[in-house]
Amino acid sequence: MSVVSSRVSSVSSILKSSGVRSQLIRRSNKVYFKLPKDFRTIIYNYESGNGTKDYDDLICVLRDSCIKDSDLVEFLANVKQCTSLLGPAHKTLLDTILQIKWTNRSVEVINAYKAFLENLICIQTYYAKTVIDNLVELFKPDENDDAKWETGECKEETLQRLNHIHDVFRKTLIILPMSSKLLLQSLRGRFPYMAHGTHTHEVYVYALIQILEYAPQMRSDILSLIINRLVVLDVNIPHSEVDDEDEDMIDDNESDSTLGNENNIVEGKSRTETDEMHPIAHKLDVCIELILKYMYDSCFTEGVLRIESLRSLYFDLLNIFETVILPTHASQYVQYIMFYICSFKTAVVESFIDWLWRKGTDPNVPSIIRQSSVSYIASLVATAKFVSAGLVKAVQFKMSKWIHDYINMQDHLQYADHTRKDHTVFYAVCQALFLIITKRHNDYQDSKKYMLYLQELDLAKIITCKLNPLKSCHSEIVHNFAEFTRMYQLAYCYTIIENNTRNQLPIYNDDKIVTTTVENFFPFSIYTLKRSGHRIIPLCRENITRKRYKSFTEYREDVEYMTD
């Protein structure tokens, strides 16, 4: 063995054994730069026009170089002492300092940086918006941070980072009370877009909920912001069920392979459905779970309900529901936030149903909002386990009384045209009543007494009135109601259904307006989100608005049987 080879091998073995090679590489890739200690002199010289180079060099070092923690602590202390000198002319320098990554550094750097920020906001309010914007941006995890909260609990390193940011915000709101508007504006402008990952949404929403701990006055605005953005996610999730209109257009003569696809449609599965949750649905799921957890923790202490906290939160959410959720067409999941809070106490669900009923029967409210309000009542009463049998009867009585009053009012007119769209709210209330009766009649142990109660509702008069509600209500609900009333001899609907079917045939040169079917929108019909589902699904009755058929043939035979 040669001397050269032995020397090379010995050096190589030394580097391998002691880790010197890795240390040398690490040192060669990381060069530290010293920061100037005469910061005040640099500022004075720059303002006098003699020290532009030193000023620009300082900005370059802060922006592009590695700085030791000890040097950074000393530099921040010097900057803090000169805060009064840092007017708007030094915005570039301050922006550069604010871009420094500080939340993952030593405790000394973190404390020095916090003190610098608090002093800057207090003395130079001009920079308040810039400081808040940079801090809010730090809520989002780094792009290379793939850490996920498998159990839904915030990881310790993330929690520490967020706590440092919240410490600054907490003091900022005390020092500068008007900064709450700037904070809300920044939170709104930097909310993750739909294209951002699930983890980014989860951390950001978690951080927003943390703000409510020390800024309860911002709760209504922050919850409104979160729910508004969740609605955007919600409406962009492909619907899990195909509209009934698409089902009715299925051709009976299609091949067996196509029929197999039709079976999936009737069972409520889309053709492209897989076992994996849709990416947008997953983002929505983790965010709704955070909201529901916050709601529970706000209203319960060790399992004991706090009435005042519940009352305050309910009215905040009700206002958000009215302005954000109710006007949204066919959202799938976000409305379950109201469903969940209604489960906390009977008085809450009673209040919510009463509010919806007043909204649905108010002639000054737009028709589409009135119809949606009635749909929410019907779906809530038909779905929720926490809606008592007594409340069901009260809702049925209110609806039937309103329907009869409406019919009597129309009888005083010269004629009543059931094809006019002016009666859409009437048809929506009829459809809601039909649905509630067919879905909740099994709740009454004394069925004979309940049937006597239903007889007092005079259902026969409702279905035989000139407005002909059976023609405008959804066919599946009509057939279920017809079967129920025939079984208990409350009314006979099949003759009217058959006449309506014949009259729906097109007539040449007919000037009548085609009857519009009430939309089959029941917002609490199905919940498929996994993480938040453990809170919602136990509160729901099974098989809410749709009967599940094993095959398309069974569905067709059932419909044909009901119409015979």
Q: What do these coordinates show?
A:
With 564 residues, the chain is mostly helical. It is 63% helix and 1% strand. The chain contains 28 helices and 2 strands. Strands 1-2 form a two-stranded antiparallel ribbon. α8 packs across α10 and α11 runs antiparallel to α12 (219-235). The chain is elongated, with a radius of gyration of 33 Å. The model is unreliable at 1-12, 14-18, 20-28, 241-275 and 543-564 (pLDDT under 50).
Biggest sheet strand order reads: 1-2
Major sheet size, sense and barrel closure = 2 strands, antiparallel
In DSSP terms (H or I, runs of 4 or more residues), the helix count works out at 28
Low-confidence stretches: 1-12, 14-18, 20-28, 241-275, 543-564
Q: Secondary-structure blueprint of this entry?
A:
Blueprint: H1 3-18, H2 20-29, H3 39-48, H4 52-64, H5 69-81, H6 91-98, H7 107-123, H8 128-137, H9 156-175, H10 179-189, H11 198-214, H12 219-235, H13 244-248, H14 256-266, H15 279-299, E1 300-301, E2 304-305, H16 307-325, H17 336-342, H18 346-360, H19 367-383, H20 389-411, H21 424-440, H22 447-456, H23 459-464, H24 469-472, H25 475-487, H26 494-503, H27 533-536, H28 552-563
Summed up:
With 564 residues, the chain is mostly helical. It has helices spanning 3-18, 20-29, 39-48, 52-64, 69-81, 91-98, 107-123, 128-137, 156-175, 179-189, 198-214, 219-235, 244-248, 256-266, 279-299, 307-325, 336-342, 346-360, 367-383, 389-411, 424-440, 447-456, 459-464, 469-472, 475-487, 494-503, 533-536, 552-563, and strands spanning 300-301, 304-305.
